Amino acid sequence: MIISTDETAQLEELAVAARGGDSAAMDELLAQIQPRVRKICGRILLYPEDADEAAQDALLAVATKLDSFGGRSKFTTWLHTVASNSARATYRSLKRRAAEKATAEFPLQADPRTTSVIAGSRLDLLEALETIGVEHPEYVEPLVLRDVQKLDYAEISEVLDIPLGTVKSRIHAARQAIQPLLRVTG
């Protein structure tokens, strides 16, 4: 979803006002970003109900944690991070719940990949991100922001507050680490 310069400026102004305590600005900001947040979450969680759950969590995070937005980057760039993190957290929660349900109700079928509650999610990518995140958590967010959310390197550098060269090297290392973990279909 591409936002025009005017829309971006309007969102920036609303974010500043909302961060300053203007409840009407917060309501307007949340209303305007809702479709964008839903789309970001939908890129990671393809099952609509899962993406909706993640989007609601992301909107709540924006409403309650807007004061943590330091303004080092554009608000929309920060929003990508919040929504991506929410989608990944929702996946982990769904996976955990599916495993608990499968274990409790069907002990012989404990594989969460076969549980309909997470059907449609990009299981191979999400599992691979979880795996590389154990040893290299610093790789996950730059990779998601670049390859899933399609932010450019400069935006990632801004939102993560790390040098551009570090962003590029982390993404390169993440791609090398994740590639053997992804299932090839076709």
From TrEMBL:
Every RNA polymerase sigma factor 70 region 4 type domain range: 137-177
InterPro entries attached to this UniProt entry: RNA_pol_sigma-70-like (IPR039425), RNA_pol_sigma-70_dom (IPR014284), RNA_pol_sigma70_r2 (IPR007627), RNA_pol_sigma70_r4_t2 (IPR013249), RNA_pol_sigma_r2 (IPR013325), RNA_pol_sigma_r3/r4-like (IPR013324), WH-like_DNA-bd_sf (IPR036388)
Residue ranges crossing the lipid bilayer per the database entry: none
Keyword field contains Transcription: yes
Keywords of the record: Sigma factor, Transcription, Transcription regulation
Pfam families listed in its UniProt record: Sigma70_r2, Sigma70_r4_2
SUPFAM superfamilies in alphabetical order: Sigma2 domain of RNA polymerase sigma factors (SSF88946), Sigma3 and sigma4 domains of RNA polymerase sigma factors (SSF88659)
Domain RNA polymerase sigma-70 region: 31-96
A molecular function (GO) term: sigma factor activity
BP-aspect Gene Ontology terms: DNA-templated transcription initiation
UniProt family annotation: Belongs to the sigma-70 factor family. ECF subfamily.
Matching NCBIfam families: sigma70-ECF
Name the record gives this protein: RNA polymerase sigma-70 factor (ECF subfamily)
Organism: Naumannella halotolerans
Lineage of the organism: Bacteria, Bacillati, Actinomycetota, Actinomycetes, Propionibacteriales
